[in-house]
Amino acid sequence: MFLLLAKLNFVTTVSSKKNSMEGNVTQEQESLSPSHLGVDHESLQQPSDSGKKGGWVTFPFLAVAMMGLGVATSGALSNLVVYLIQEYNVPSVDAAQIANIVNGCLSIAPVAGAIVADAFFGCYPVVAVSMAFSLLVSTHAQTSIHRVHRVILLINSTQYPCGQSLVVFTLTASVQSLRPSPCKQPGFGTACSPATSGQMAALYAGVFLICVSAAGSRFNQATMGADQFDSPADRDVLFNWFFIFFYASAVLGSTVIVYVQDTVSWTLGFGIAGAASVVGLVGLLLGSRYYRRPAVKGSPFTGLARVVVAAAARKRTKIKVATSGESKFYHGGRSGDGDGKTSSAPTDSFSFLNCAALVTDDDIISADGSVVRPWRICTVQQLEDFKAVLRILPLWSAAIFLSVAIGVQINFTILQALAMDRAIGHFKVPAGSMFVSCLLSVVIFLGLLDRVLLPLWRCLTGHTPTPLQRIGAGHVITVISMVASAVIERRRLATVHAAEQEGNPGWVSPMSAMWLVLPFALSGAGEALHFPGQVTLYYQEFPPALKNTATGMVAMIIALGFYLSTALIGIVRRTTSWLPDNMNASRLENLYWLLAVLVAVNFGYYLTCARLYKYQNVAK
User: Fold this and answer.
1) Is 249 contained in some domain?
2) Residue 149 has pLDDT above 50, yes or no
3) Bias regions of kind Polar residues — which residues (predicted)?
4) pLDDT above 90 covers what percent of the chain?
5) Stretch among 218-222, 298-302, 499-503 having the lowest mean pLDDT
6) What is the three-class DSSP state of 511?
7) Pair (489, 428) in one structural domain
């Protein structure tokens, strides 16, 4: 399946001048061999395809694009919990829940972008246009903000919807009428004046527009990068480095921009985020002549829908799937026979669906293999594509609860940091930057994995760890991370009880917030294993027409994780007294212990799914 993308032709016509240019591209590809990336495979020492574009010459341009978008997005949203508490007087636990919903939207939006890329335009146009929206953001970020009535008109305007996202954020930070009155003790509810509906609407408008502008590029960049290579080994390395740049950019956004927001101004911080998106767009466009652009084959979901409709319509049809040749199955115009009918049967898995491709007397098939009523029958290939998706769904569902646990940990660790000593010498670490330890852990562990651990594993065992093995290891480390969070929170609360400050929501524990680095580092190591493993698994096992959607499946996992973490927090608040707005009176460690148990049970479910799963494309 990996090799199918290599057979796709360019959409544009190649002239003799372009042929000469491609010869130069081939030489550049040879000079940019990825040996410096720590890969020893012979296949990686050669250009992707000497007769076509693509290959490692595209990597620097894609890397700049990844970094620019990541810095812009993380810089705008990573400090959202603190922004809500300090500038909008939102109670602390409510702020954590809002941040989970926002992160869920930011994660689910790329799935829509992947569908659009798969069905209509391909990766490059969708990525370029989405990043161009970020350019509009930075261009309009200098708009005058002196007239509040124009602010409201700007928010309601639909002329440039995606280009207004950071404008709205900048305005909420600059115009006092778009924020409630300052609070002496922000984050503790009743003592503060809440934001009005209009003020919250302005903030949510900015969040929504950032999600829209990121939808087309966040994970389509991974698929676009994979399209540049023929070798599965090349793609595996590309996915590792995609995540390295993805998390490295988040580190920059969560440190530099968050520091500017906390110490200089929120307005300047949002402006820097817009400038980073401009750099990313320029980097992407500079590599345009080198990119391989596979042809788009139309919406892949139409074929999947045909399977469901045809199977439902024929649920009473008796099927005899045998080698006798009595049953004919529809293979479309590409089959060996001109009418598209052969006795070659579908696979036995999910055999109850095979009736969808069975040719009956009611089916009218023309000489060229096309069918008159396409929604009454599907091709065997469409049927097998649908089965491939069904096979992987249990494994996909096992990853959702990992994101639930991580989502809870991210935002509550920020609340823990606000109640702990964040000083390192004379420097006070912003609470919103604590998550950087997780991001750095991902980057470091991915590099260590690519340069040391995987080569050592290959040397000792003679083969590379499978995606399922990497994902399973990530499950185990996530359980350990939840246990570490519970132990550290128990120690923090012990200092609160010792000082008898349970009733003082503003009291800061003398315990160093640097203890929070340990669970975040463990969580990052787990992500370095299970997220790239999932991307590799889905890209390898999904049908060729669903490659963009395959990488978007990880985004959907993250989104569902954030949404479900919000639901879990709501259930815990309604049924227990663990999570009051006063963190010094909370029992947050009980929530972490609950997560550790649930993630461990989920790991057992994953092991069952992994044991039953059979790779469909491992040979390729």
Assistant:
1) no
2) no
3) 19-34
4) 17
5) 298-302
6) strand
7) yes
The enclosing H or E element of 164 equals none
What is the span of the domain harbouring residue 333? 300-378
Amino acid letter, residue 481? S
In a domain, 220, yes or no: no
User: How far is 62 from 565, CA to CA, in rounded Å?
Assistant: 33
pLDDT tops 90 at residue 243: no
pLDDT tens digit string along 165-217?
455 555 666 666 777 777 765 545 456 777 788 778 777 777 777 777 777 77
Type of residue found at 303: G
88 and 269 Cβ atoms separated by less than 8 Å:
no
Nearest CA-CA partner of 76 in 263, 244, 261: 261
Last residue of a domain, one of 378, 409, 434: 378
| Residue 47 confidence class, pLDDT cut points 50, 70, 90 | very low
Q: Concatenated DSSP letters for 318-384?
A: -----TTS-S-EE-GGGSSSTTSEES-PPPSTTGGGGGGGB--TT--B-TTS-BSSGGG---HHHHH
* Boundary-marking domain end, from 344, 378, 412: 378
Q: Which is it for strands 509-512 and 420-421: parallel, antiparallel or unpaired?
A: parallel
8 A C-beta contact, residue 416 and residue 492:
yes
Same domain membership, residue 465 and residue 587: yes
3-class secondary structure per residue, 94-123: HHHHHHHHHHHHHHHHHHHHHHHHHHHHCH
Backbone angles phi, psi at 342, to 5 degrees: -140, 170
Token representation of residue 156: 């309601």
Whether residue 332 lies inside any domain: the answer is yes
Tally of domains in the chain: 2
* Exposed / middle / buried, residue 310 (Cβ in 10 Å: 0-12, 13-18, 19+): buried
Instruction: Note whether residue 206 is domain-resident.
Output: no
